[in-house]
Amino acid sequence: MSHVMVVLPCFATVRSAANRPRQNGNSKTKKMQSRSSGGASLGFGGERKDPPWQCVQGCGACCKLDKGPSFATPEEIFDDPLDVRLYRSLIGPDGWCIHYKKSTRTCSIYSDRPYFCRVEPDIFQELYGIDKKRFNKEACSCCRDTIKEVYGSKSKELDNFNHTIRSSSSN
Ligand code: SF4
Ligand code: SF4
Questions:
Q1: What residues contact residue 62 under an 8 Å CB cut-off, 6+ apart?
Q2: Would you say residue 1 lies in a domain?
Q3: Whole-number pLDDT of residue 95
Q4: Ligand 2 contact via 55 beta carbon (within 6 Å)
Q5: How many domains is the chain built from?
Q6: Would residue 129 count as lying in a domain?
Q7: Centroid of chain to Cα 4
């Protein structure tokens, strides 16, 4: 998922998100529905636009596929057993994806990566039942959760992500 930027395998969404209520989709996407709703309100009838999500170079957190018990399992996310099998086949002995290049923090099969590695509104809606209007907010939230789990809540990777998102939203 990198440029090459690394993109978020959708299954990287944390279990806490999996327990949120859903508005549409199947029983598994229900698990991934967020509590949050639409654009954040500013009060006074105004609406604030969520800052656009973007993948940050030099991260790669979401390519650690085995993140531990606080994250949803592929069985909890995918309906198709082939997706579960594909996901599991990617996990290397150290928990990182076998296609992840640690030296550059990039995906070695970027253009051919599985659909669930693509952070796109359509994929979030299909897999998690997340409305496209909430894509930016949910994708940023997924990244932060993933980066905290892999690198820590005080990591430079998290600082870098937050700084990039803030910068892009102020442009
Ligand atoms: S195939 Fe592996 S390295 Fe590539 S984006 Fe998906 S999880 Fe990351
Ligand atoms: S966690 Fe987010 S910023 Fe980091 S590599 Fe994945 S998609 Fe990119």
A1: 1, 6, 7, 8, 9, 12, 117, 142, 143, 146
A2: no
A3: 93
A4: yes
A5: 1
A6: yes
A7: 17
Q: Whose CA is nearest to atom 8 of ligand 1?
A: 63
Residues paired with 40 in a beta bridge? 48
The closest residue, in CA terms, to atom 2 on ligand 2 is 143
Residue owning the nearest CA to atom 1 of ligand 2: 143
Residue 15 contacts residue 70 (beta carbons within 8 Å): yes
* 97 within domain boundaries: yes
Structure tokens at 159: 């600082």
Q: Which ligand is nearest to the CA of 110?
A: 1
Strand partners, 91: 97
- Tell me whether residue 2 is in a domain: no
Q: What is the per-residue pLDDT across 1-50, written as a single tens digit (0 to 9) for each?
A: 433 444 456 544 444 343 333 333 343 433 333 333 333 334 444 456 88
pLDDT at 101: 96
Average pLDDT over residues 62-83: 88
Residue span of the structural domain in which 160 resides: 10-37+46-170
* Ligand with minimal distance to 11 CA: 1
Q: Report whether 127 contacts 31 (CB < 8 A).
A: no
Query: Minimum-distance ligand to the CA of 53?
Result: 2
Q: Whose CA is nearest to atom 5 of ligand 1?
A: 1
Nearest atom of ligand 2 to the alpha carbon of 60: 5
